[in-house]
């Protein structure tokens, strides 16, 4: 099948400081359509077909920039679809030591520096350029993050590319360089609900994660202790598992601490790292990543406090995030893959979300 590959850019709204925000859309008709705004290089819409060929939007977000700026959302900031940087998740004690120097990270939650803090990449206006290559069409977002921004050393130049292809893939590629030793652990924070009906929740979705171990957390959701075997726990998704059933294992202290799943799983042992399936629509999403971990987050703090697309209040468990990244707190740990970046290195990480349907 030869489908038409289309790109468009349209104004999406204006920030309080007068900066115009644009929405960049990539489309392969009947196969996949993705829109990304240049505020936070944020995935706002993602249309894929169900088993009957009906296209529907499978990510949480808002219809326009105003939605992202509304107070009810800002007060419960959940990073819907955002690019996260410099460092995803939480760093224990909100500090890290690099080459003998201690760096303190400013808090943006009550007790936590989360997802890069107040100066996070989700808050930045990125520049954007479309591209077209043998694999598909895409848009590259670029940003220069100055030395010291958000409490992190080194000036980082980063590019995040979103590409769609005829085989119904959305691929996100991160490339970065630093001018001084630093740490870097970016991700994307999309909330998926494959039903395409964003009034529903994902407890009836089936999840497989090819991970034999996960990283436990403490009462404040900071990584705590060594990687732990999933076998015999609520965290065993090595076979397709109903998310609602896994969430019902409330006796699991780790589930209690996270208010659901909010944990990093160690991946990289299989060709496909995770598979999410919605039995009703037949949509399946495979996740394949070069990153060593996936932070699985079941919308634990989404509670209908703000209205999303079509004025739909996003309810508890409305969606699931598969945040492909290095492990949280890797900056402070020798037992986890390093997230250090030196000037002589080039950072590269790629995640593919591939969509199929089944009967
Ligand atoms: C974090 C959660 C947080 C959520 C939204 C996840 O990646 O691990 O604890 O509530 O993002 O901010």
TrEMBL record:
<keyword id="KW-0119">Carbohydrate metabolism</keyword>
<dbReference type="InterPro" id="IPR008183">
    <property type="entry name" value="Aldose_1/G6P_1-epimerase"/>
</dbReference>
<dbReference type="InterPro" id="IPR014718">
    <property type="entry name" value="GH-type_carb-bd"/>
</dbReference>
<dbReference type="InterPro" id="IPR018052">
    <property type="entry name" value="Ald1_epimerase_CS"/>
</dbReference>
<protein>
    <recommendedName>
        <fullName>Aldose 1-epimerase</fullName>
        <ecNumber>5.1.3.3</ecNumber>
    </recommendedName>
</protein>
<comment type="subunit">
    <text>Monomer.</text>
</comment>
<dbReference type="InterPro" id="IPR015443">
    <property type="entry name" value="Aldose_1-epimerase"/>
</dbReference>
<keyword id="KW-0106">Calcium</keyword>
<dbReference type="InterPro" id="IPR047215">
    <property type="entry name" value="Galactose_mutarotase-like"/>
</dbReference>
<comment type="pathway">
    <text>Carbohydrate metabolism; hexose metabolism.</text>
</comment>
<dbReference type="Pfam" id="PF01263">
    <property type="entry name" value="Aldose_epim"/>
</dbReference>
<dbReference type="InterPro" id="IPR011013">
    <property type="entry name" value="Gal_mutarotase_sf_dom"/>
</dbReference>
<comment type="similarity">
    <text>Belongs to the aldose epimerase family.</text>
</comment>
<keyword id="KW-0413">Isomerase</keyword>
């Amino acid at each position: 099948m030869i489908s038409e590959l289309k790109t468009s850019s349209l104004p999406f709204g204006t920030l309080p400081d007068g900066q115009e925000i644009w929405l960049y859309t990539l489309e392969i008709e009947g196969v996949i359509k993705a829109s990304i705004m240049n505020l936070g290089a944020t995935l706002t819409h993602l249309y894929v077909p169900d088993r009957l060929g009906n296209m529907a939007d499978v990510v949480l977000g808002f219809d326009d920039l105003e939605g992202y700026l509304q107070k009810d959302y800002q007060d419960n900031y959940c990073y819907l679809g955002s690019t996260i940087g410099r460092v995803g998740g939480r760093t224990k004690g909100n500090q890290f030591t690099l080459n003998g120097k201690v760096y303190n990270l400013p808090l943006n939650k009550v007790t936590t520096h989360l997802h890069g803090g107040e100066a996070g990449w989700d808050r930045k206006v990125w520049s954007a350029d479309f591209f077209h290559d043998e694999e598909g069409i895409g848009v590259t977002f670029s940003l220069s993050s100055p030395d010291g921004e958000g409490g992190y050393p080194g000036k980082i130049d980063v590019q995040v590319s979103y590409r769609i292809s005829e085989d119904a893939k959305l691929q996100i590629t991160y490339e970065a360089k630093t001018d001084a030793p630093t740490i870097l652990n970016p991700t994307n924070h999309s909330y998926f609900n494959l039903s395409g009906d964003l009034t529903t929740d994902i407890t009836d979705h089936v999840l497989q994660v090819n991970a034999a171990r996960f990283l436990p957390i403490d009462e404040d959701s900071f990584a705590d202790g060594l990687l732990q075997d999933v076998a015999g726990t609520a965290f065993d998704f090595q076979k397709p598992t109903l998310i609602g059933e896994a969430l019902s294992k409330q006796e699991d202290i780790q589930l209690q601490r996270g208010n659901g799943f909010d944990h990093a799983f160690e991946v990289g042992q299989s060709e496909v790292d995770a598979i999410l399936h919605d039995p009703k629509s037949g949509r399946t999403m495979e996740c394949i990543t070069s990153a060593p971990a996936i932070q699985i987050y079941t919308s634990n703090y989404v509670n209908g406090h703000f209205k999303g697309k079509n004025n739909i209040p996003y309810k508890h468990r409305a969606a699931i995030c598969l945040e492909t990244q290095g492990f949280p707190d890797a900056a402070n740990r020798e037992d986890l893959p390093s997230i250090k970046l030196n000037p002589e290195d080039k950072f590269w990480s790629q995640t593919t979300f591939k969509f199929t349907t089944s009967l």
